[in-house]
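2024-03-11 09:14:02 INFO queue: dequeued item O-antigen/teichoic acid export membrane protein, len=528
2024-03-11 09:14:02 INFO validating residues
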Amino acid sequence: MGWRFLKISRASVFYNVSVLTVSGVLFQLLGFVYQVILSRMAGAQALGVYRLVSPVLTVVLAATLSGLRLAVTSLSAGLRAGRDTGRLRALVRKSMLIFFRLFLVAAVPVGIFSRFIAEHVILEGRTAKALLLIPVYVFLIGFEWTFEALFLGIGKTKYTAVSNLLEQFSKIVLVSALLLWLGHSEDYGQVAFYIMLGMTLSEIPSVVWLLASYRRKVSSQGRARSAVGEEPLKILPLALPVSISAVVTNLIASASVVILPGRLIASGLSSGEALSALGVVSEMALPLITLPMVLIRAMSSVLLPTISRSISQSNGADVRRKVQKSFQATGLFVLPATAILVPLAGPLSKILYRQELEPAYVLLLAIAAVFTYFEVIASSILNGLGMQRAGMLIMIVGEGIQLLCTYYLAALPNLGIYGYIIGMILSPLAVLLLSLEAIRYKTGCAPAFYDSFLLPMLAAGVTGMFARYFYVTFLPLFGGQLLPILAAAACSGGICIAIFLMAGLHPLRYYKTLTIPGTARGRGAERK
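2024-03-11 09:14:37 INFO prediction written
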C-alpha cells in the first residue's frame, strides 16, 4: 500500500497564507540586509533625515492608494469563484482611473512644492531633493499595489509574493550601488536622495512582472462582457472611508515624526543627537524588534478577503471562528517570538548595525510591538466586517495619543526619546481595546482571554528567560556572538513548542485551523 500525501489546494486559504508567510520571511530577511546596508553606509543622522521624508510619502500613499487597495482586494474576492475576468478587468480599469486622478491632486504638488514643504512643513531643508522623487515613486507603486491587491483577492498570492521579493532585492542592489558610488558623504540630504532614488528604480522590475502576470492570467482570459457588474460602482464607497482614515491618521502620525526632533532638542539634545535618536529607533531598533510582523502581515492580508467572503455568504459562524482563531494564533506565534528577541536584540544589533541598543529601548519597543500585532489583526477584521468608519475613528484616537505623548513627554529632560516610545505603547493599546469592543458589538464574540493572551504571555515569559539563559551559557562556548544567538533562539523556540504541546496545542495544526475555511453556515455575521 502506497503512501498518501496531503495535497493542499492552491485555491485554499491555508495555501495562500503559507505562500505569503514564506515569502514574508524571505522579504524580512532581505529587509534586514537592506537595513544593515543603510545603517553602515548612511549612518544614523542620514537615516534621521531620510525618516523625515517618510511621513510625506506615507500621507501621499494614504491619499492615493490605501482605500483603493482595500477596495480592489475586497471586490475581487467576491468575483473569485465566478472567474469573471471581464468584471475583473473593469474593476482594474476603474481603480486605475481613480488612482490617476488622486495622483494628480495629491502626489504631483509634492514634487512641485518640494522646497517649500522641506523648509516650512518638515522644517528640514535637506529633505527637498528626496521629496522631488515622491511623485515618480507613487506613480510606479500605484500599478504595483493595484495588481497586488487584485491577485490577493482572487487567491493568486504567488504573484504578489514574487513582486514583493523582486522589489526588495532590486532595492538592496540599487540603493547599495548608489550609496557606494556616492561614497562617504556628510551631505545627509544627498544621501536621503540616493536612498529615495534607489527605492524608486526598484519598483520598475516589480511593475513589469505584475503587468505581465496580469496580462497572462486576467487580461487575456476571454473577452470583456458587456455587463461589467456593480463592482466599479462600489469602489468609492469602500475606498473613501479607508482613504480618509489613512490620510487623517497618517497626517497625525507624520506630525509626531516631524515635531520629534524639535521636542528632543527641547529636552536638551543637540540637532545631530535628535536626528540620530530618530534614526536609531525607527530605522534600526524597530525593524529588529518587529521581526514577527511577517506572520501578522500574511494573516491580515488574507483575513480581509476571507471575512468579506463569509459576510457576503451570511456565514456568521465562520466569521466568529476566524475572529477567535486570528487572535489566538497571533498570541501563540508572535508573543513568544518577541520574547526571544528581547534578550538577543542587543548583541544582534552589534552584529547588524555595529551599534548597541539600550535594554530599555528594546523592552519598551517589544511591548509596543506586541500591542501593534494585535492592533493590525483587529483593524483587518474591522475592514473585513465592513466597519471602515469605526476603524477610521479608532485610528484617529490612537494617533492622537501618539501625538500628545510626542509633544509633551518627549520634551521632558528625564524622558526624551522614551516619551515618544511611551506613545508607541499607549497608541496601539488604545486602538486594540476600542477595536475589540467594536468587533464584539458587530459579531457578538470577543477573543478568549486565556487562549489569546494569558497562555501566550506565560509561554513568552518562560521562553524569554530561557533565551537569556541559553545565550549567557553558550557565549563562552562559541567564538563570537552569532552562534550563541542562533543557538539560544533555537533552544528557547524548542522549549516554547514543548510548552504548547503540553498545553494540548499543536502549532502547525493550529495554524491550519485558522486558515482553512469553516463549513458551518449561519446568520448573525453582523447585527442588523
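2024-03-11 09:14:37 INFO annotate: The CA atoms of residues 186 and 306 lie 50 Å apart.
2024-03-11 09:14:38 INFO item closed
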